[in-house]
């Protein structure tokens, strides 16, 4: 690596932008994205994902293509010519049938293929199943560029492990798995990341191992959460507090600590389907992985049903009842609403003709309207005074400042999905 090394990051989202900013402290980085609105905002020094501090972003932006370091943000193909490394961080979602959607990866590979120069290395960071880099992306790079893989250009895979909203485990603070398409390229890729990752790197023996490692990290988490979600369903029937049980069991040195809840977002609720797809294609039916997914996807509906049961027991009406759901983001203290399973709670309530309102001080009302067709309440002054049920779905710290009890009607119930509030102040929790 020299100071002349030029890096292009394709896809400036939750993963791509923080990575581009870190590399830009040492090298000239072009951050490329097809979303012009995102490019315009970034060029004004605004990161709406809140992953990069706006002051840092503003200080690192450059417009000079010949600068020694800094971040040039662009949607122009001509700006990404001549790069030594292309790092692809585009989304890997699933469709309505939970099948992987490769379109962003295919399109990004076509883009890179158009400008790929000899000896460049294309590193994928998007979460995929083993084989996607070499079997799907590399052939596109070869076809579009006309260059030969592992002779004229090379590939790598280095999964991202960041956790949106987490200000401790930031990109440089998380050990990074690296890999390359030849032993020499693996070292080259590893050395590149070593320039910014203070937590160190782990060089995997192949791209497929690195791809598989990432997808099982999230699948393991999904399955472990599914287990505690199942426990929650059992213990609610037995009238035993799941949190207390988990606290007691958690005193054993090798008990894995997990909490029940909704599993949404762009990663844990999606990635296991990638592994499942590859397993099925290879002739194996992944029962545990899919059972975990099924359990976790059932939790939103379950929360609403349990709340309705509690309302009925208190003699409250159901049809036309005013219910408040607190939180729409997929996790606490961050604005990310992608694949939020809170929508399952809302839809289940609506199926009972309940009048649902959703309040979230973190989420953007515009995005929520676009994504879920919901009119989000963004400020607590807009809340009605009395609700017949309140479901605390996301444990934003800001909800601790809300006087939730005063929002509840006399016969109202509170269901605390994340056990944020003291147990004796709520009527039910997972
Ligand atoms: N969000 C996370 O916490 C996280 C953590 C680890 C891994 N990942 C994985 O990283 C990948 C990216 O996730 P993300 O959360 O950053 O997604 P994101 O949606 O926040 O960002 C992706 C960006 O890529 C852009 N994009 C899409 N297609 C493009 C194309 N053809 N060319 C250029 N830009 C394009 C989009 O406009 C968007 O700005 C996914 O595979 C995800 O599973 C995400």
UniProtKB/TrEMBL annotation:
Gene3D superfamilies in UniProt: NAD(P)-binding Rossmann-like Domain
Domain UDP-glucose/GDP-mannose dehydrogenase C-terminal: 324-423
Family: Belongs to the UDP-glucose/GDP-mannose dehydrogenase family.
Molecular function terms from GO: NAD binding; oxidoreductase activity, acting on the CH-CH group of donors, NAD or NADP as acceptor; oxidoreductase activity, acting on the CH-OH group of donors, NAD or NADP as acceptor
Domain of life, per lineage: Bacteria
Pfam families according to UniProt: UDPG_MGDP_dh, UDPG_MGDP_dh_C, UDPG_MGDP_dh_N
SMART domains (alphabetical): UDPG_MGDP_dh_C
NCBIfam families in the cross-refs: NDP-sugDHase (TIGR03026)
Keywords from the UniProt entry: NAD, Oxidoreductase
UniProt-recorded name of the protein: UDP-N-acetyl-D-galactosamine dehydrogenase
GO biological process, one term: polysaccharide biosynthetic process
């Amino acid at each position: 690596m020299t100071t002349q090394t030029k890096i292009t990051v394709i896809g400036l989202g939750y993963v791509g932008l923080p990575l581009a900013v870190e590399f830009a402290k040492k090298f000239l980085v072009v951050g490329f994205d097809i979303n012009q609105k995102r490019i315009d905002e970034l060029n004004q020094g605004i990161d709406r994902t809140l992953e990069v501090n706006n002051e840092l972003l503003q200080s690192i932006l450059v417009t000079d293509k010949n600068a020694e370091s800094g971040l040039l943000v662009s949607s122009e193909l001509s700006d990404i010519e001549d790069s030594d490394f292309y790092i692809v961080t585009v989304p890997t979602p699933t469709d309505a049938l939970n099948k992987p959607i490769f379109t962003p990866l295919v399109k990004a590979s076509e883009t890179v293929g158009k400008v790929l120069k000899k000896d460049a290395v294309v590193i994928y960071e998007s979460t995929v199943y083993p084989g996607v880099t070499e079997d799907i992306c590399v052939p596109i790079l070869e076809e579009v560029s006309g260059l030969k893989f592992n002779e004229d250009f090379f590939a790598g895979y280095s999964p991202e492990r960041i956790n949106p909203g987490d200000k401790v485990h930031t990109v440089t603070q998380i050990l990074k798995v690296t890999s390359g398409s030849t032993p020499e390229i693996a070292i080259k890729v590893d050395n590149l990341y070593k320039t910014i990752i203070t937590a160190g790197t782990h060089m995997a023996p192949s791209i497929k191992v690195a791809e598989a490692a990432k997808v099982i990290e999230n699948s393991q988490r999904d399955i472990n959460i599914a287990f505690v979600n199942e426990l929650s369903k059992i213990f609610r029937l037995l009238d035993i507090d799941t949190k207390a049980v988990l606290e007691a069991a958690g005193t054993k040195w090798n008990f894995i600590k997990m909490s029940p809840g909704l599993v949404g977002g762009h990663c844990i609720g999606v990635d296991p389907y990638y592994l499942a797809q590859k397993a099925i294609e290879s002739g194996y039916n992944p029962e545990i992985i899919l059972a975990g997914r099924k359990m976790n996807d059932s939790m939103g509906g379950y929360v609403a049903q349990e709340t309705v049961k509690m309302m009925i027991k208190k003699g409250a009406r159901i049809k036309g009842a005013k219910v408040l759901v607190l939180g729409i983001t997929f996790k606490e203290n961050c604005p990310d609403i992608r694949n939020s399973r809170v929508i399952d709670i809302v839809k289940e309530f609506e199926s009972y003709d309940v009048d649902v309102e959703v309040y979230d001080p973190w989420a953007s009302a515009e995005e929520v309207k676009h994504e879920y067709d919901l009119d989000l309440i963004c400020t607590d002054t807009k809340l009605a005074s009395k609700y017949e049920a309140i479901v605390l779905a996301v444990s934003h710290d800001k909800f601790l400042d809300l006087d939730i009890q005063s929002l509840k009607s006399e016969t109202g119930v509170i269901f605390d999905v994340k056990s944020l509030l003291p147990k004796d102040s709520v009527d039910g929790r997972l």
